Sequence to fold (513 residues):
Amino acid sequence: MAKQEDVFKKVISHAKEYGFIFPSSEIYDGLSAIYDYGQNGAELKNNIKQYWWKAMVQLNENIVGIDSAIFMHPTIWKASGHVDAFNDPLIDNKDSKKRFRADVLIEDYCAKIEEKENKEIEKAAKRFGDAFNKAEFEATNPKVLEYRAKRAAILTRMAKSLETENLADVKALIEELEIADPDTGSRNWTEVRQFNLMFGTKLGAASENATELYLRPETAQGIFVNYLNVQKTSRHKLPFGIAQIGKAFRNEIVARQFIFRMREFEQMEMQYFVPPGTELEFYEYWKQTRLKWHLALGLGAENYRFHDHEKLAHYANAAADIEFNFPFGFKELEGIHSRTDFDLKAHEKFSGRKLQYFDPERNESYVPYVVETSVGLDRLFLALFSTCLKDEVLEDGSERTVLSLPPALAPVKAAILPLMKKDGLAEYAETIFNDLKYDFNLFYEEKDAIGKRYRRQDAIGTPICITIDHDSLVDHTVTIRDRDTMKQERVAVADLRKIIDEKVNFRTLLSKI
Ligand code: GAP
Fold:
């Protein structure tokens, strides 16, 4: 089995074993691509949300946050283009009965060509050593050029066929490239069909006059339709932003890879409203700012890359993804899009209401342009969880599993561990717990050997363990143990709040952005 697969399996089992993520409705055999967050997962998720919200809303005086409803007027999804165009092309394999996204099969094929191309470059880099000129090699090597041309031709043809709804050609392409079901090798395909990703539901008691609704597939439209309400009541001038965190729902065809692609997930989106003509400048600003926000988490710069979209959606004039190196390779973590005035103009047209802004500096009214940043909360959770989960062999040859989360995001900030229950240690530990609980999420445990208790805290990422022993009763000091260095230190109980705060506060994390 590939190593990557092992890592991913370990991530999934650790998430379940330590109360981070459970398959939803598990006692009824689960529900495909739906997950529940357990006691530690909910804490971690809330802390990630806080990190995003503080960075967006608290640190920027011109960005405010809202919380719009999941149910929205159905015409909104007509205006946004989701009713007509929020489709994935799907194809079934007749032998394995498995369903795939036709575009993903073709993109995966191209990714394999890209791997070959990268191998050529790596080989040459080794061969030429310091004298290697990568740019020149890429521009002149016949094999690299051939691979690139092949990829470009395939992707261009696919984009054109999808745009013109020529689904027969998408199937033809799959057949010409001899793409097989990755699990079974079968090439016995059905036709390609379009499949709308929105979940429908009904509003109203009597079925005959019930209104057809959709569960929102993105939170962004809740921002667009409230933009004028927020602008007027906040009295912000352009540029200003509206941020929102909330659930989104998509009936994904291929929902594998754990919480990477789910049918119910959460987005953290921000729409930045700007004067027309300035959008590309702000687009560049937000691309860099969002990358810095990710880098501050300390997961390693080598694990991020930009993927600039060459082929743009009809409403965008620039778009890029921040990709992350997940256990199954580089995939989209966040999208940054310059969405022009497409959405607001469409809502003006479909609602019949003016959504213009009067710009006192330009002395004119216009529909603002929008730069969007959109990151999946669950994908960020997976990025953090999978990168921070490490198996370590210690100096004495023993092993431990540690979740080295950024301390501000750790579900539990400190564990209070009396060495034993008797002799008044538990009572003393409880007074410490009761004093610190107003400031930090704590964990209290008096059972088992201390080493075992440390390991359990390492496995959920608790930055500090506080051990109370007999000396504590006499001199009011305790031992604190650091999760990452495992170093132990004797400190005064009176200093605990300050010590924990210095370790886990958001200021340290936010000031790195
Ligand atoms: N408003 C723009 C928008 O929704 P998107 O690229 O479709 O753009 C934005 O989604 C982000 O939402 C993605 O970068 C990803 O992190 C997250 N996301 C999208 N679909 C998802 C799914 N099925 N499961 C988990 N996260 C998803």
